[in-house]
Design a protein that fits this description.
Blueprint: H1 2-14, E1 19-25, E2 28-29, E3 50-51, E4 54-60, E5 70-76, H2 83-89, E6 95-99, E7 104-110, H3 120-125, H4 132-146, E8 149-153, H5 169-190
Parallel strand pairs: 7-8
Antiparallel strand pairs: 1-4, 1-6, 2-3, 4-5, 6-7
Length: about 200
């Protein structure tokens, strides 16, 4: 799903349209010096982001000259210990993309049971942020209520969190199928109904 999001971003950028991006990352400190000064604000592989959780805002405009990364805001990092949990606790999207010319907002919510190793201790200290309601149902609600287009990601890493360690593969697959059916039912409930 991350690759599909990146492909969507690249196609809109190539249109060319101005894109306002908000990115929230649980695991990494996405501070400005970790970004390449290229047109797409890519993250440098020679200076990888550190742990801490953060939010960055940037603007992409293929018509601007020169084509350089325009980071407009950075928040979070190791000094703010609440940031690794912010998106989960407040049911915020992991990625937001606003297309002002079209007045369209795309949101990307990560909806699964994957808990990154780098934030597990923080989750153990804040159990209220990792309940099934917070990690699944509430994020689905937020995505379906707020966006012009919503992408829900229940991916190949489903069931890799510590709480799944004693679960058999058959049971994990059963829970995965049930969650997918539930999510598809929620999405189908929003689909426009054809006239009889």
């Amino acid at each position: 799903m991350q690759q599909l999001w990146t492909g969507l971003l690249a196609e809109l950028y190539r249109a060319p349209l101005t894109l306002e991006i908000t990115q929230r990352v649980l695991e990494y400190d996405m501070r400005p010096q970790n970004h390449n000064r290229d047109a797409m604000c890519t993250v440098s592989h020679t200076n990888p982001p550190r742990q801490g959780g953060s939010q960055i805002n940037f603007r992409l405009d293929a018509r601007a000259a020169p084509l350089t990364c325009n980071l407009t805001q950075y928040r979070g990092g190791p000094a703010q210990s609440s940031w690794p949990l912010l998106a989960e606790c407040r049911a915020l999207p992991d990625l937001e993309m606003m297309v002002p010319e079209a007045d369209v907002l795309f949101l990307f919510y990560r909806v699964d049971a994957n808990i990154s190793k780098s934030v597990r201790p923080a989750f153990r200290q804040s159990q209220h942020c990792r309940t099934p309601e917070m990690l699944f149902e509430r994020r689905i609600d937020a995505a379906l209520e707020a966006a012009d287009a919503a992408v829900a990601n229940i991916g190949v890493w489903y069931g890799r969190g510590a709480e799944w360690a004693s679960t058999t593969p058959d049971r994990t697959a059963e829970r995965y199928r049930a969650d997918v059916r539930h999510l598809l039912g929620r999405l189908n409930g929003l689909a426009p109904q054809a006239d009889p």
